[in-house]
């Protein structure tokens, strides 16, 4: 598009008036690229973060096709948290204010269901809510979606992180097949592509950030003295201070030994190797992926299939004998346009491996001395989150919304303090911010989830 003004779009006078009253001068990139497709009724798969103007994009799109005289729910917007749902409702209301008689209702967990039931007695045109509470209203038949025209999944990656995949699919089963589906996600993991394939029809794919061309990995090799690997690793962590890092060893025994050594020095490090039972492996992966552990130490075999978003650093405690495996290791950082850090340790007798990597890359590599690292006495990497384990899961009919509600409903604990929620058959895990971890543990231990008591413990 050459004209980035909203007036270039086929919008009603009322909608253009609302857009103008909100001070929107020109379209943002997601609006300029997404709105023409949305207004034509096409499905949209868009990578866009908060602050990109995505809310206005989908709100303008669904308001454009709304029939105010038809009192049925025509648009549903699913959000991961109550805070985001409230924010989306507020902006949609502002955009709808020039159109008479538009009813918008927000349905979220953590709030009494009675007033929500009353607000649904006369069907709203637009419903904004969290998956758990939306599903509850569908089960009570207080919400009907047979007249739905537009379904929006906002921050879909976050909803999947929080364990809402099953709820989302059950909600979609209650919607008409002939509908427009708009899916917005800040990141683009495989799960997003899979859910898009399941629920969308030939979506227009838009990435407002450079995902493939802006892959930046700072790669540095450090030559160290024999017997100094662990000391050098600690110096690296003190110098670069990555929020989380994946450390590769060549042998599984070395993984556990290194994790134990780092624990003794005050670092939160976990090992991933073939000797772990499945339950232990799941626990380790949950803690690392939800930012409850700063360091994951793994072999190449154990890390196979591991997909961690926003991984700041990869550290090769030992170089792989295979240059291709080395490239695969470091390719786990610097994804989705983020900057990545790849650090490798080697001793003099391993120079040939550095040379092989250099030849494979067909480019020079940067080699620094370990003595150049700036260490900080008594510095420790403290994970931002803590994981709480709940001895109940899918078999107990626990859902992410139940756990979120138990933590935030009438407790004063904000939903934004809650991180990733993982639910398996018999156990569930919830990440909470470190400063509120004791409060969250107390709330769950003293209270009930879905009317039942569960045993809660903090993972170390």
Question: How would the blueprint of this fold be written?
Answer:
Elements: H1 13-21, H2 29-39, E1 44-47, H3 54-64, E2 75-78, H4 82-96, E3 104-107, H5 113-119, E4 126-129, H6 131-140, E5 150-153, H7 156-161, H8 165-172, E6 180-185, H9 190-199, E7 204-207, E8 216-223, H10 229-240, E9 245-248, H11 252-264, E10 269-272, H12 278-289, E11 295-298, E12 313-316, H13 323-330, E13 339-346, H14 351-361, E14 366-369, E15 385-390, H15 400-408, E16 418-423, E17 428-433, H16 437-446, E18 456-458
Parallel strand pairs: 1-6, 1-7, 2-4, 2-5, 3-4, 5-6, 8-13, 8-14, 9-11, 9-12, 10-11, 12-13
Antiparallel strand pairs: 15-17, 15-18, 16-17
Helix pairs in contact: 2-3, 3-4, 6-8, 13-14
Outline:
The chain is α/β, with parallel strands linked by helices and 460 residues long.
Describe what this molecule looks like in 3D.
With 460 residues, the chain is of the alpha/beta class. Helix content is 35%, strand content 19%. It contains 16 helices and 18 strands. It has helices at 13-21, 29-39, 54-64, 82-96, 113-119, 131-140, 156-161, 165-172, 190-199, 229-240, 252-264, 278-289, 323-330, 351-361, 400-408, 437-446; strands at residues 44-47, 75-78, 104-107, 126-129, 150-153, 180-185, 204-207, 216-223, 245-248, 269-272, 295-298, 313-316, 339-346, 366-369, 385-390, 418-423, 428-433, 456-458. The strands form three sheets. It has a seven-stranded parallel beta sheet with strand order 3-4-2-5-6-1-7, with helices on both faces.
